[in-house]
Amino acid sequence: MIDLDIKGFFDNLDHELMMKAVRFHTDEKWIHLYVERWLKAPLQQKDGQLIKRDKGTPQGGVASPLLANIFMHHAYDM
């Protein structure tokens, strides 16, 4: 068993590569749609300003660890 801590992994996850991994593991279009929407949903600052996200997963999101595992499996085990 190997335990790794990849610095900045969640903040820098490439959306296109993540979606490629998701598409590899399921053909369900609704899953593709919702994962992509979730990844790209803008971040709202305290002052109301919306920040566009083009990489990374939401910090503390319940799906972030699952998506990270799918991504790592796809990247390193395939």
Automatic annotation (TrEMBL):
Pfam families registered for this protein in UniProt: RVT_1
Coiled-coil region(s): none
Ranges where the Reverse transcriptase domain occurs: 1-78
Annotated InterPro entries: DNA/RNA_pol_sf, GrpII_Intron_Splice-Mob/Def, RT_dom
Family to which this protein belongs: Belongs to the bacterial reverse transcriptase family.
Protein's name in the database: Group II intron-encoded protein LtrA
Organism expressing this protein natively: Candidatus Scalindua arabica
